[in-house]
Amino acid sequence: MTEAIVQDYEVSSEGAVRHWEIPYARLTDQSPTATLPCEVTSLTTGTKLTGTGLVVDADASVAVIDFTCGMVYWHEVRNVLTYNEGVAELTWGAINIGDEIYYDSSASMAAGVKLSTAPTNTTGGNNTRFGWAMARNDTDMALFPKGGATASTQEIAVMQLGSGSAAT
């Protein structure tokens, strides 16, 4: 028995691509920017849906976000590991391939930087897992580990968790 292809997406080399419009009011950052990470608010902390902004429509107050599991985007990532609760960054570490990357809502994050290696934020709440650090290409692979024991922001290829994947 031959199988029929029901939808075009079933022949995609990257699986089902998930691009969805989300109202600004449902985003942690209610002034999203295309190409930056986004987080959709939820009732449960640390388990929010995350993805990469593709298009922002200020007139309609919606953003089109790529929630595709396993999609890799080039993002700025802060190498902070822990915070002095309620104050500022406390410790930092080198970022290596495979390290977990989090959507970090801490107020101390540099403008435009939404991701870090810290599992908790400045208030002690859980950051949402965004994905994992990856090498962009062979040249980039040779630069790992990136950062170190002092504060820095690194350009990292991040494989996003997206939707359709377990959060842990």
Total number of helices = 1
Percentage of helical residues? under 10%
| Estimated structural class | mainly beta
Main β-sheet, spatial strand arrangement: 5-9-8-10-11
Distance separating the two termini? 38 Å
Number of strands: 11
Write down the oligomeric state. single chain
Compute the average pLDDT: 86
Molecular shape: globular
Low-confidence stretches: 4-12
How would a textbook summarize the main sheet?
Answer: 5 strands, mixed, barrel
Can you tell me about this structure?
The chain has 168 residues and is mainly beta. It has two domains: 14-66; 72-160, no CATH class. It is 2% helix and 35% strand. The protein contains one helix and eleven strands; from the N terminus they run E-E-E-E-E-E-E-E-E-E-H-E. The protein has one helix at residues 138-141, and strands spanning 19-23, 37-39, 50-57, 62-66, 72-78, 80-84, 88-92, 100-103, 115-116, 128-134, 153-160. Strands 5-9-8-10-11 form a five-stranded mixed barrel. It has a four-stranded antiparallel β-sheet with strand order 1-4-3-2, with no helix packed on it. Strands 6-7 form a two-stranded antiparallel ribbon. Strand 3 (50-57) and strand 4 form a beta hairpin. It is globular and about 45 Å long. The N and C termini lie far apart (38 Å). Residues 4-12 have low confidence and may be disordered.
